[in-house]
Amino acid sequence: MTEPLTLPGIEPLSVAMLLYPGFTLLDLIGPQSVLCWAGTIHLVAKTMEPVTSDSGAQLVPTCTLADCPRDLDVLFVPGGFGTFAAMQDRELLAFLADRGARAGSITSVCSGALILGAAGLLQGYRSTTHWALHDALPALGAVPVKQRVVVDRNRISGGGVTAGIDFGLVLLAQLRGEESAKLVQLMMEYDPAPPFAAGTPEQAGPALTERALALMGAAAPTADAPPARA
Amino acid sequence: MTEPLTLPGIEPLSVAMLLYPGFTLLDLIGPQSVLCWAGTIHLVAKTMEPVTSDSGAQLVPTCTLADCPRDLDVLFVPGGFGTFAAMQDRELLAFLADRGARAGSITSVCSGALILGAAGLLQGYRSTTHWALHDALPALGAVPVKQRVVVDRNRISGGGVTAGIDFGLVLLAQLRGEESAKLVQLMMEYDPAPPFAAGTPEQAGPALTERALALMGAAAPTADAPPARA
């Protein structure tokens, strides 16, 4: 576990964030940067070896699947170009199904929603995911909603990559109050100023969207095409 | 180095990002998530051991100070509660002064600007930093500017923590064109939607600002007070 910098006066949260090969670092570090102020974060992986993200940078787990606490306030899954492999990993899915059966909040950012879906945790729940992947949700039992953060009962999901910061603040507000979330937002100086209006297909237009789909398709392994990177 | 997911048709960048104990993960992962599409990122530290961030989570370096390429397109320093210790680390400062003498762009997010200043790299340059630390810049020779991203010749700085995403996109646009930056912005789904207006002292108001200053003061070690965490 990582040591908490806990806000005074709140009941600390117990959070598990799943690491798997090819996860996207920012999907996880966005909410981790919010929730680290609110309790203990377990970075959970199959082994204690560093886990390589889809950008190549490696994060060190704090516990294995087996050693992760059984009762969690928050269970979280990031997305990444390794998502499709993770969706076929029975050990990861069994872990998520087990902890998800008792977790207070079952959550994801980006394509992490597809992994929750593969673990059977989104059946009948509204969810968001990366803009390129909404069509993949219904086959997993989820109802896609094009929204930055979607809350349906105790399932809370964020859109692609950078949505993890908005997601983290919404989750913290829900679990420990708006004042806590605002305090963390201030310490993180979260008053974003995107230099361009290009964060969605609608803003970016069809030409840039085609280029993005081609690039992401080349980077994401599927059953038919090998991964662009090991 | 981490393997690139390089955008087609651009000349890859050589980027060094400094890791030191107590850096803030999101300060670094924001721009890393942008720049990983544009070349090779070296995560540089004194040794190859994992480096513990101020949230407790550990990132694995890809090279030591000695092994870092001598000629860089981008030299980058994140902030964090370990900033004040890093400002007194002669080995880190000598590394920054050396690479900074030849780097194409000399850059920081959050309190990383103070470390660049301590290395003598901001003398006479306009710079931004975390909102709580602007008053510390003049003693280091820099001219504080309250702006999310500040560009002064080849010095480019971002404000606190989350400003690293805006900073990364501005930097990429400057070095490899607006189309590259917009493409990455789209893949990162960067269309932020903060749930509250609390990202600056002006928005958050004086009561929350006082609480934030007290919390950050307790977490950041100074000469007079020991660190709140190891």
Automatic annotation (TrEMBL), chains A, B:
Matching PANTHER family: ARAC-FAMILY TRANSCRIPTIONAL REGULATOR, DJ-1_PFPI DOMAIN-CONTAINING PROTEIN
Pfam families: DJ-1_PfpI
Cited Gene3D superfamilies: 3.40.50.880
The protein's name in its UniProt record: DJ-1/PfpI family protein
Source species: Nannocystis punicea
InterPro entries assigned to the protein according to its UniProt record, in alphabetical order: Class_I_gatase-like, DJ-1/PfpI, INH-QAR
SUPFAM superfamilies in the record: Class I glutamine amidotransferase-like
Highest taxon in the source lineage: Bacteria
DJ-1/PfpI domain ranges (all copies): 14-173
